[in-house]
Amino acid sequence: VTRSFVNLDDIARRARRRLPRLVADFIEGGAEDEATVAANRAAFGHWELVPRVLVDVSKRRLTTSVLDHDLSLPVGLGPAGLARLAHVDGEVAAARAAGEAGTVYTLSTGSSRTIEEVAEAARGAVWFQLYLWRDRDVIAGLVERARAAGYGALVLTVDVPVIGRRERDLRNGMTLPPRLTRANVVDMLRHPRWLAGLVRGSPLTFANFVDVPGRGRSAVELGQYVNVEMMNPSATWEMFSWLRTIWPGPLAIKGVLHRDDAVKAVDLGANGVIVSNHGGRQLDGAVAALDALPAVAEAVNGRADVLLDGGIRRGTDVVKALALGAQAVLIGRPYVLGLGADGAAGVAAALEVLRNELDRALALVGCPDVGLMNRDFLVRSGSGALA
Amino acid sequence: VTRSFVNLDDIARRARRRLPRLVADFIEGGAEDEATVAANRAAFGHWELVPRVLVDVSKRRLTTSVLDHDLSLPVGLGPAGLARLAHVDGEVAAARAAGEAGTVYTLSTGSSRTIEEVAEAARGAVWFQLYLWRDRDVIAGLVERARAAGYGALVLTVDVPVIGRRERDLRNGMTLPPRLTRANVVDMLRHPRWLAGLVRGSPLTFANFVDVPGRGRSAVELGQYVNVEMMNPSATWEMFSWLRTIWPGPLAIKGVLHRDDAVKAVDLGANGVIVSNHGGRQLDGAVAALDALPAVAEAVNGRADVLLDGGIRRGTDVVKALALGAQAVLIGRPYVLGLGADGAAGVAAALEVLRNELDRALALVGCPDVGLMNRDFLVRSGSGALA
Amino acid sequence: VTRSFVNLDDIARRARRRLPRLVADFIEGGAEDEATVAANRAAFGHWELVPRVLVDVSKRRLTTSVLDHDLSLPVGLGPAGLARLAHVDGEVAAARAAGEAGTVYTLSTGSSRTIEEVAEAARGAVWFQLYLWRDRDVIAGLVERARAAGYGALVLTVDVPVIGRRERDLRNGMTLPPRLTRANVVDMLRHPRWLAGLVRGSPLTFANFVDVPGRGRSAVELGQYVNVEMMNPSATWEMFSWLRTIWPGPLAIKGVLHRDDAVKAVDLGANGVIVSNHGGRQLDGAVAALDALPAVAEAVNGRADVLLDGGIRRGTDVVKALALGAQAVLIGRPYVLGLGADGAAGVAAALEVLRNELDRALALVGCPDVGLMNRDFLVRSGSGALA
Amino acid sequence: VTRSFVNLDDIARRARRRLPRLVADFIEGGAEDEATVAANRAAFGHWELVPRVLVDVSKRRLTTSVLDHDLSLPVGLGPAGLARLAHVDGEVAAARAAGEAGTVYTLSTGSSRTIEEVAEAARGAVWFQLYLWRDRDVIAGLVERARAAGYGALVLTVDVPVIGRRERDLRNGMTLPPRLTRANVVDMLRHPRWLAGLVRGSPLTFANFVDVPGRGRSAVELGQYVNVEMMNPSATWEMFSWLRTIWPGPLAIKGVLHRDDAVKAVDLGANGVIVSNHGGRQLDGAVAALDALPAVAEAVNGRADVLLDGGIRRGTDVVKALALGAQAVLIGRPYVLGLGADGAAGVAAALEVLRNELDRALALVGCPDVGLMNRDFLVRSGSGALA
Description:
Four copies of one chain form a homotetramer.
Chain A (H helix, E strand, L loop, with lengths): L7 H11 L2 H8 L6 H11 L1 E3 L14 E3 L2 E3 L3 E3 L12 H11 L4 E3 L7 H7 L4 E5 L5 H14 L3 E5 L9 H6 L12 H5 L2 H8 L19 H11 L7 H10 L4 E6 L2 H9 L4 E5 L12 H12 L4 E5 L5 H9 L4 E4 L1 H33 L12 E3 L7
Parallel strand pairs in A: 4-11, 5-6, 6-7, 7-8, 8-9, 9-10, 10-11
Antiparallel strand pairs in A: 1-12, 2-3
Helix pairs in contact in A: 1-15, 4-5, 4-15, 5-6, 12-13, 14-15
């Protein structure tokens, strides 16, 4: 573990120094005015903790079980596309660090390393994220590859019927994959170590699709294929049910904010519901993930695992999410910035910071087991309590 | 469409560069402390969207019908006086751009081009805005001209019994029409392109009144006539009923904020109610337009079209207005700044930005038809939802 | 009326330029952290106006009757001690300007001109403010002088059992009356016009007490007498009742914030209740005057006049106070700063600004008579109204 | 009393000038993002005072009785470790100043002077704070020493099962006791007077433990012993009951925020409940102390004394705490900064500032006795009261 990171902000700061601005902006930015990015963070500040005292907290239990996987802490790594942008080792480094930390890594469909490469490198459980894309054969093929490679769960992202408008990327001339332009060449050249990583080895592209629809596609063509051609705004619950039939293992739906959608998903066989607004990268103005959590958790009522994705930066954030009904949380930017800061070691550092903070928070809040966290530990901030 | 505008703020920024400060301030400013200008914007931030997933949003229907007119999107151009201040092509350019975008343009009575000129140039539906001025013969004459020229609806503005105090204009020495003074001459001379437009062709004045009460009036005399002599703080509902008798077509009342006034207007024959505080240019401290909308929409209860005017800057703002009961919205500053940025192309760009944002927002919120938007898609911001 | 004042802030700005900092701070400052000064202002922003339309507002009635006096607008001048600090003409100028504007001036007991001088110079109604000081003979003497001089009402200030701690004054070395010190001499010398006014004619002192308890007292001794010796923290309702017996005319109690105190005062014969926290100069952390108004007005229930003192800076502030139950408001800092800006002309300008703003606000809010203003014109800000 | 301190902020400012930054940060800082430090202060601003008038406040009674001790004002000094960091006279100076002010000093277990030294120097009541550490013999020994030395009450701190993460200290290289490092040597050398105090006389260490477990330990070893080895996250209510059996005198529990814990403590024999989040130094994100107070006070219902610790900076803060159910408050940073500013005189100044502010506040709020303060004097800020 890198020694000098006091908290996740430290990791983010180092990543910002090491990465070209257009990459850091791509990682940290969100849709339009980034109101939802801000709301995701602010929502945690709207709750305060009411600790209990003289509870034996000498042994804290951080372990939990989500989607039939045992995790050493209730914090998994969510999907993030083209992780190689942040570090040459990309998804492989993240998967390794997650496994070594005893938690799960979720591989994005839009990864820069293949399903198989990541599975081979992984040190623990890996889940595979996918979209309900236009071509069911492609989906079925990806699912089969994930099954064959040993992925333990599917995470179906449903909040990308179309791609959100990330204005930082538009202004930076950021594309997936990025191309050198007059506007960003200086930015890239000022980060030679990053640039060396980018051009080393295989080209940065959507690795899972290189062999799928036809060989010989360029990175740019693959970007067009993945980002535009395959996007499927006509996907409905019928397609979800179909996916359910071809994947017998644990299946989670990611991007649910409305309680009725959560119930529907569980009725149709979802084993997990991931409350998420895609980190504020899709619909700007969407409700903060944490604010959507209580209604979803109440509606799901224990019939599936509920996870929270969005805005986690402190151990106490994890505590608050658990208190409001989540079994675990996923993080995105913190570990991608960890990659940018220091590759696998940076990811490990991010997880270690959160683990330590969560462990301390459990002790200080007087709850020795993440499974015992509940609403009685929370009050709304500035409410004057009984007032 | 101008390519480089990422959002409406970009358009506003360009307009501010191209226009003298006193003109930009005239467009963007409001009454007194501009508290209502700010409240109009802030009100949208007090609501967050709760998207639905796995809805087929492959085909989004943005079309709506307002005041018996079919619009390609639920965004029309509201009335704005002396548009030539922003660009030499003024109202003609705006009307053209609106028509080409498939939406409506509302011509202000206080326009710098005549009813007839604008009608002739228009590419689609145009509505005509007027006041209940002192002289009924003048009103009747304007109504008859609008009818003859083919205007499809009347928009009666009722929130100007007296003119609001816009302190920026007072400090800038801004008058309608503007005059060169020692205080503003430098400001104007630094924008020679704008100045050239101003002095080219016919003088900038209230074009609809040049021929009405007597020929030979100077621009200054016309300003006095329009802004002072004709203002009618004694207009009452009786006069509204009279107007209803002389105009058989669609009639909307603009500037309503109280539910009882909305009901009264509909009882007396209004076909549309435009919830508006005149963009914060009249009564500073007036309730935000969006905050006034729910009560009005509930009270009107489908007996007339309800429109929202004030503070729209994003596609999601349109979504929120529809969810709170509006059939459509009107924009003002965004298109006038579009004019200032690039004439008709700037207006087209503003509408295109909003259309794209609205289209994407509908997809991301999981509502494929503007007519299906409703309160279930909204929660109050930072409410902790179920908390 | 001075022409160039767009609003009250303009007047304050000019006063700040013309006055030494220690004097401007004395006028504008409040107790401790000045939280109540800020709260008084902020409270107005927590309400928004819901205008009515198509009401005949061609004739606006601003006149009201308070404490048996007819005022041309519902804005009177509250008491302020040692007005000569702001301008050499002090209380005489303020009383004259108030009378010429058709409203009332309230002379402070701690004035720099005598009861008799001000009465003689006044052009309209004057009220006299006093405290329930230790010595009933002194009070009785002041009341008799006020009666003889023709003052129309007594205003009894009850929120100064001890003097609030105004930290700006402590830091500035400000005393009443001010003395030249090393710390403030430069400040004073940089304002020679003000300094000339200060040293011209009779010395700056508590004029009403020069002849009362014994001739020959110096200004400093008088300050000690008025500010310290006479202060009476033991005054109770019994003393109020005694005052009621010696003054048959209209009597208002100033500094009431709790509904029960308002009821008590009316039960014991008060004709008016002035809701005030002394402009935030006494108890820092006290409830904002406007926030205290509704409960007091409801409790008084028409049995006495209710006035609001504190935070009025705009015509719409007056409207809001009336809507929440006040018959009129008193202003303090705005007219004292008017004195500092331009003597009697500055006071007249302040009143004229407020009159024009109030007149316009009544037209725009659709209420042609200050007596018809009510709660239906208000909503809480940012409430989403019906939400 | 030092003359030039207008308020507690003045004292803090002087302390910041006199102390190395790492020491000032140690005193003023809190855990992680210091959200709870800020919340503790902000909570007071969420309440406003509603004064009563014409109450005889000529004699104000500030005295109260807490844990069987009569205090001259309802403000005691809470425990703070290693006070010698702030001033060479450390705990001895603080105890003396408290006694001379007629209030109580609470000696921290982690003090830099011994139980016996402080008792001997004290001029009034002293309480002794301790933790439920691993070794009951050590606790029993400390309790016996406190009894023998005449301490009047025990204060058991229960919110340190583990130590909070204070990131300022981590970044500053601050340890207990502090060590010269390359990072902080310049900071220390720039404060030679402070440094001289530090190296003068006996070494800065945890004085109470020098003789306890074994002679010859170095300061660093003692720090390890006190901060790490003895910490006891397994302490439960059983241990509290045990402590109750070995100490017959007044016993208060410090660090309670949940009403159920307060009831439990009282059920098990606590005489006092100190509502506290350790000044925001332990669990960041914990509820503000003042916000936790009403529920605790209601639950305790007079069966024990309730004290508030956290965020007191003004006399009106004390008033608000009393109104919400506290019998008294404890201060921490204000007196430690007083030490830093001017040793015992600085502590005396801090208490004198608070006493004067409280005395004035009682007069201005119309409550002549701290025992009569109640909820009727409070409203929530910005609530529009009756609205």
